[in-house]
Amino acid sequence: MGGDGYLPLFETKTAKGRIAYQLYAVSVFVGICFICAYRVSHLPPTTTTSTTQDGSRWAWIGLFIAELWFIFYWFITQFARWNPIYRHTFKDRLNQRYEKDWPGVDVFVCTADPTIEPPIMVANTVLSVMAYDYPPEKLSVYLSDDGGSELTFYALLEASRFAKHWLPFCKKFNVEPRSPAVYFSTDQSFVDDDDPLMAKQWSSIKNLYEDMRNRIERITKIGQIPADIRKEHKGFCEWDLVSSRHDHPVILQILIDGRETKGVEIEGQLPTLVYLSREKRPQYHHHFKAGAMNALIRVSSKISNGWIILTVDCDMYSNNSESVRDALCFFMDEKKGNEIAYVQYPQWFDNVTRNDLYGNSFEVIQKVELATMDANGGPLYIGSGCFHRRDTLCGLKYSEECRVEWKKQNHIKKEKQNATELQEICKIFASSTFEENTQWGNEMGVKYGFPGEDIVTGLSIQCRGWKSIYFNPEKKGFLGVAPTTLLQALIQQKRWSEANFQLLLSKYCPLIYGHGRIPLKLQMSFTPYMLWAPNCLPTLYYVIVPTLFFLRGIPLFPKISSLWVIPFAYVIIATNAYSLVEFLYCGGTLQGWWNDQRMWMFKRTTSYCFAFFETILRQLGFSKLGFVVTAKVADEEVHERYLREVMEFGTPSSPMFTIFTTLAMLNLFSFVWGLIRMVIDVQINVLEALALQLVLCGLIVLINLPVYQGLFFREDNGKMATSVAYKSIMLALLACSIVMY
Ligand SMILES: O=c1ccn([C@@H]2O[C@H](COP(=O)(O)OP(=O)(O)O[C@H]3O[C@H](CO)[C@@H](O)[C@H](O)[C@H]3O)[C@@H](O)[C@H]2O)c(=O)[nH]1
Ligand SMILES: [Mn+2]
Q1: Taken in order 328, 331, 332, 337, is the CA torsion positive or negative?
Q2: 499 lines ligand 1 (CB under 6 A)
Q3: Residue 351, exposed/middle/buried by CB under 10 A (0-12, 13-18, 19+)?
Q4: Which ligand places an atom closest to the C-alpha of 117?
Q5: Measured from the CB, is residue 384 less than 6 Å from ligand 1?
Q6: Quick check: helix, strand or coil at residue 382?
């Protein structure tokens, strides 16, 4: 369009109430200055008369360094909080303008393991994206199966059959959400007498779905494909050559060839559906998800070559059938669209319980921080729920010439070959040797060598001059599965913090690599995430040292009667009150906030700690990169505890558990000892000087209540393993006795 009549396809709004936030931030800053002044002016002298004062000077300096770190950290987080913005799209304008000229869209779904990513879940995710409200001949769905499993292939085959009923049903009755599992599990009251036709179809489709689910689940349980089913599709023959999931040739099957316009029995056309399990050989590194994505990029370029690529994890079903059109409003906006490389949706989860026991939903990061990054130049690419321009994902640099003539892009590449021929031709692109001596994984495609391939890839796209968009519509675009046990949550956090910390140490460090390539405020907004892992050191210091010195009766904070208490109290109360308000505003509960604080401490003392040291070891060449895939299922009993929001400490247990349990015990001992002292020998002066340490200790005890419960008061299988209990209690006692005597 352009010219005077130009109506944008999206608009941007700034958040309200920012002045209040900025006033708060300034007041905290003033408080911080007073704390620093106190630390400097009250430093214990080097020589002391009393022997009990030993070490207090060093402890003081250490505490000050930890506080300086927290201050610095607080300061840089302001870059991610200061001015969030929100996007709004105008789909009706888009539909009007591009009625018949839609670009091709390829959807990549990744799965890696049929045991922890159940095939029925994968099938549902695939069905939900196949059912997008988008012309089917322009839509192609690719499943990458790094598990190389015929069980997953079988589920996809079943899904391709069920799609013939499901897609027309969705479109006819405008059904939402379009994951059949979710749709049929929600309220059924809408099927009333008003629409007898729908009611009839509803039950017949539901029966079809249930039958399919039973078949898939039964075969998944058996763990292999029965002979009669094997005969149903020639694709199963491919598994004759599979020796293991780590050693097999390319398996590529075009299950639905949407390029054809005929050939579908029921109603209308279906999108193309492709199964790919790239070649795996023990002698070649496969680069985890990044490798899978690059294979998909190449294979899809030959089959459908959609202009837009949507990447989703197998557990993230589409919750909104209009997401493709929403995303296109950004790319196809005539004025601003040409500089946009990707549109990232938040990653929401549909299995988070009311009080979010494991702090999984990241409401604040997703509602405030990523929205601020959007204002600063563009959000991170976070792996799932992201629409990319194909050419930018492949390495294109931004220039004025990159402008797309959308009306010319709508023609799907039509190869002459039929599906079977095409399958054979494309196999080469997914072979394990294809990337040798190429720029794949480096200058091209998703980057290799990082636990967080997504973040680095997004950053490098931004550094090539592109902008990105964060889009968080009211009706959520994607919903995934969050970890449901404490250990899974901590392991996932370890991978994420590792990913971010490694970015800091790599040649792609945004502060250096980004210099001159992306705005300074965007460089700065990366930093809080990159410093997650190093946060473990000051946090450990803060939960250990003041407690130990409390036991020895050495004060490290101002007396309760001194005016210096005010800045400490103000900063602690103000930042916590603010974080609570922000949390509630973002939709959380009070208990949820408290749980989040607990997870914050667990993460900082365990996941981040392991990530910190492991990244350093890897940097020095002592350890190799891995990718622990998060389990999307738990056994029934564990799941039942998750629903009741009871913490899971049971087996398998981990050194991480020993660490936070030891810290909990240590603080409990000190706290009890402090109380006893208060009662039996009323040394008012001493306690007056130690009051803040007692409060700190008390808060740590309070937040750890579920840990004590798991140690001493629970009988179920989710309680703390006895070995962990013994180890932690011994360690904590040892630490106490060392400092006391
Ligand atoms: O060798 C592998 C390992 C993983 N995956 C897939 O990668 C996805 C993400 O794995 P998951 O274990 O679910 O990790 P999460 O921590 O939940 O994922 C977050 O973090 C990842 C980066 O660490 C991003 O890639 C994801 O999009 C983001 O949701 C899943 O679909 C897996 O099937 C593969 O395809 N191949
Ligand atoms: Mn996941």
Answers
A1: positive
A2: yes
A3: middle
A4: 1
A5: yes
A6: coil
Question: How far, in Å, from the CA of 288 to the mean position of ligand 2?
Answer: 14
Q: What share of the chain is helix, strand, coil (3-state, %, to 5)?
A: 55, 10, 35
> Which residue type, as a one-letter code, is found at position 406?
W
Q: Please state, in angstroms and rounded to a whole number, the distance separating the CA atoms of residues 478 and 321.
A: 10
Find the 451 Cα to ligand 1 centroid distance in Å: 10
From the list 649, 548, 549, the residue with the least C-alpha distance to 598 is 649
Closest ligand to Cα 113: 1
Closest residue by CA, ligand 1 atom 19: 383
Instruction: Name the residue with the closest Cα to ligand 1, atom 34.
Output: 289
Segment-wise mean pLDDT, segments of 10 residues, the chain, 741 residues: 74 88 92 94 72 74 95 91 92 90 95 96 98 95 97 98 95 93 78 73 93 97 94 93 92 89 56 97 95 97 95 97 97 94 97 95 92 95 96 92 72 69 94 95 94 94 97 96 95 94 94 95 95 97 94 89 93 94 93 97 97 93 86 91 95 90 96 84 71 93 97 94 94 91 77
What are the angstrom distances between the C-alpha of 500 and each of 91, 455, 494, 531?
35, 8, 10, 7
- Taking the centre of ligand 2 as the mean of its atom positions, its distance from the CA of residue 481, in whole angstroms, is 6
Q: Tokens 């396809």 identify what position? A: 9
Ligand 1, atom 21: nearest CA belongs to which residue? 383
For residue 27, the CA-to-ligand 2 centroid distance in Å is 39
Q: Is 289 in the pocket of ligand 1 (CB under 6 A)?
A: yes
* Six-digit token string for 169: 């049903």
- Judge if the beta carbon of residue 114 lies within 6 A of ligand 1: no
Query: Quick one: which of 122, 144, 230, 169 has its CA closest to 480?
Result: 122
How far apart CA 536 and CA 533 sit, in angstroms, is 6
Q: Does 477 contact ligand 1 (Cβ within 6 A)?
A: no
> Looking at the predicted complex, does its ipTM rise above 0.90?
yes
